[in-house]
Amino acid sequence: MKRFLLIGTLFVLFLIEGTVFQVFAPEHYGFDFQLIPRFVTVIVVMIGMIMSPAYGVIYGIGFGLLHDLIYTDLVGVYMFGISVAAYIIGYLSKVFQLNWFTVLILGLLGFSLVEFYVYELFSLINVTDLSFHSFFYDRYLPSLILNGVFLLIVYYPVKQLLEELSESRRQENQAKRRNFL
């Protein structure tokens, strides 16, 4: 049941990113910067850190593909970016003792990997003409702060959910091994 709670939460966050959050977008109110919520990316990177890199890749493929199909003309950009970021950060997290600070730093590193990858790819194929200066100061830094604050807010409940899911999967695998032997 908790597995469906995780998928449902990610789906609701996906909807919030593209619909509800756009009502509060600062560019609609005359500000020069953009806030790009990547809440699903942040949670998928946390899945890679807390559960395992393999689960991060699976969720990254699913929700990245959903993002590609709905928001972009190129299928596979976000699917690849989110999956690779979850994989890299998932394995990198094995080196550190995970607490709120390391999860924040690694989560923002995963967010940054996706953002820079997408920006560079879109610049390379001329999908965007946004200068790097504008991207960095008007889009990336405000979005980094937004997603960092989001990660701090959801850290404890998401960590608890992911640890419970991880433990229940571990118990299921042990029971299957005992029944097999």
Automatic annotation (TrEMBL):
Keywords: Cell membrane, Cell shape, Membrane, Transmembrane, Transmembrane helix. One of its GO terms (cellular component) is plasma membrane. One of its GO terms (biological process) is regulation of cell shape. It is found in: Cell membrane. NCBIfam families: shape_MreD (TIGR03426). It comes from Guptibacillus hwajinpoensis. It is a multi-pass membrane protein. This is Uncharacterized protein. The chain crosses the membrane at residues 38-58, 70-92, 98-119, 140-158. Belongs to the MreD family. Pfam families: MreD (PF04093). It comes from the Bacteria. InterPro entries: Cell_shape_determining_MreD.
